[in-house]
């Protein structure tokens, strides 16, 4: 599993507390996607499972380390949603917690990792809560979440929270430039579209997303103000929520353009497009546009089995009305 330099400080913080006997048995890691929270848990788990740690590092040679490296340590549990399901049920929690009250098979620590705690059902969260209130000896829980508010308050209250803050922008750009060949504007745009999470920006640059986004920007340039429906084929793809996010980021940059805040633009590689859109769409219309597309995206993400094409078509028609001169 790839290690990231911005994880060094939180890793040292957690291990140092464990060495001092102050480690909390339940750690809730809050982060944006692409911050490497799973790599952090893996690194901490390796240290906990190591029988001969070398300071804050695992030795890499003992039996515990070898089992971790082979991904088959019997006392390390990762609970993820089964294929075809969208939630983590109570049975999965009970199966693991039943094992926690027995001696560790390797005689050391036992680690339970739940990468996305927001996937826990209500019953599963309650079952886990009981174990967190009276944890077995030498048992460690690591819960990850990108949406802390989606977790029950009772569950959050039983954990020590570790927030993975995004690195400084220049540090992230330096790391990105060493990973992929791209011009500074492209790197900056990818990083800002990912809200500052470097690994998410790298994934964006290394996938087809960047190509699809460029195509979207080109189509948008010719669609506004008179042919907004030409965007429909591009906004009825499987990644429609992501494409609306791209659109909203461009519209928000147009607001920044109106307010002479160009240094805070997200899409630094599309300044000509932003300048053009800002001359076509007034500032009040931009605010209305952002509200319109925010509502559309929310309905797409939160409404089960909704017809995406109908929602997007309605939004495009409503959006086009904002470009008409006032009567």
Automatic annotation (TrEMBL):
InterPro entries: DNA_pol3_clamp-load_cplx_C, DNA_pol_III_delta_C, DNA_Rep/Repair_Clamp_Loader, HolB_lid-gammaproteobact, P-loop_NTPase. Residues 210-321 form the DNA polymerase III delta subunit C-terminal domain. Keywords: DNA replication, DNA-directed DNA polymerase, Nucleotidyltransferase, Transferase. GO terms for cellular component: DNA polymerase III complex. The keyword Acetylation does not apply. Pfam families: DNA_pol3_delta2, DNApol3-delta_C, HolB_lid. DNA polymerase III is a complex, multichain enzyme responsible for most of the replicative synthesis in bacteria. This DNA polymerase also exhibits 3' to 5' exonuclease activity. DNA polymerase III contains a core (composed of alpha, epsilon and theta chains) that associates with a tau subunit. This core dimerizes to form the POLIII' complex. PolIII' associates with the gamma complex (composed of gamma, delta, delta', psi and chi chains) and with the beta chain to form the complete DNA polymerase III complex. This is DNA polymerase III subunit delta'. It comes from Tatumella ptyseos ATCC 33301.
């Amino acid at each position: 599993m790839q290690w990231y330099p911005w994880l060094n400080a939180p890793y040292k913080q957690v291990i140092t507390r464990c060495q001092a006997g102050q480690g909390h048995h339940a750690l809730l890691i809050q982060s944006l996607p692409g911050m490497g929270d799973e790599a952090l848990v893996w690194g901490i788990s390796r240290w906990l499972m190591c029988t001969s740690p070398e300071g804050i590092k695992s030795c890499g040679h003992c039996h515990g380390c070898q089992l971790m490296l082979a991904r088959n340590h019997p006392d390390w549990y990762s609970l993820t949603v089964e294929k075809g399901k969208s939630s983590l049920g109570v049975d999965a929690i009970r199966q693991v917690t039943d094992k926690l009250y027995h001696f560790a098979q390797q005689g050391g620590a036992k680690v339970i990792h739940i990468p996305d705690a927001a996937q826990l059902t209500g019953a599963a969260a309650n079952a886990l809560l009981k174990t967190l209130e009276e944890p077995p000896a030498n048992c460690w829980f690591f819960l990850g979440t990108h949406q802390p508010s989606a977790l029950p308050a009772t569950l959050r209250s039983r954990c020590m929270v570790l927030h993975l803050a995004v690195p400084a922008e220049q540090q992230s750009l330096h790391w990105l430039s060493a990973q992929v060949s791209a011009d500074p504007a492209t790197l900056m745009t990818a990083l800002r579209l990912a809200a500052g999470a470097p690994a998410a920006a790298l994934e964006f640059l290394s996938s087809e997303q960047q190509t699809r986004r460029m195509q979207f920007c080109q189509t948008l340039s010719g669609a506004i103000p008179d042919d907004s429906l030409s965007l429909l084929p591009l906004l009825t793809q499987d990644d429609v929520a992501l494409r609306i996010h791209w659109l909203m980021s461009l519209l928000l940059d147009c607001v920044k353009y109106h307010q002479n805040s160009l240094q805070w633009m997200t899409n630094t590689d599309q300044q000509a497009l932003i300048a053009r859109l800002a001359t076509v769409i007034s500032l009040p219309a931009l605010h209305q546009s952002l509200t319109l597309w925010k509502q559309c995206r929310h309905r797409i993400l939160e409404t089960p089995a909704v017809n995406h094409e109908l929602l997007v078509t309605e939004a495009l028609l409503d959006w086009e009305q904002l470009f008409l001169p006032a009567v």
